[in-house]
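Render this sequence as a predicted structure.
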Amino acid sequence: MVGDGRGGPVFGRIVNTSSEAFLAGSAGQPNYAAAKGGIVGLTTSTALALAKYGVTANAICPRARTRMTEDVFQPAGADGLDPLAPEHVAPLVGYLASPAAARINGQLLVVHGGMVAVVERPRVQAQFDSKQDTFTYDELDALLTPHYADRPPGETFAAVEVLGLKREQDMERPRSP
């Protein structure tokens, strides 16, 4: 960080590394998913706390081939740059650390294989208000049971669709502007 020594705004950038595991869940490693979710919470809080000083904090979820993931992903193909090569991640980190990213703060970005996805924050899906000071079991049953009645089995808060993210040209669709 660079400051003027008088307590004025500084230039500072924090780029934390999380994982899609916290978004999609990780049945085999719930502790890992929870830790990566904690990093996003830390990043969001840090972004809010340090914005007034000119410091931004963002988190990335890089999908990359590492020793930890060597049993997870298929072997790299022989054609071109491996979509899971770290070379796909480094430019985003450099950009987020630059002055050009001054307006990007408290964000979560998934990056791999020539693709960056900006993940939207969670939103409230529904709200239920008690008719008295506090809910009763019966009132909750009358509200929540019908709300979840038509949900597909296994649908949770997990954003498993993030695991299917691919570069649009790889899916043979036109790229967005």
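Summary. Strands lie at 12-17, 55-62, 108-112, 115-119. The two ends are 34 Å apart (CA to CA).
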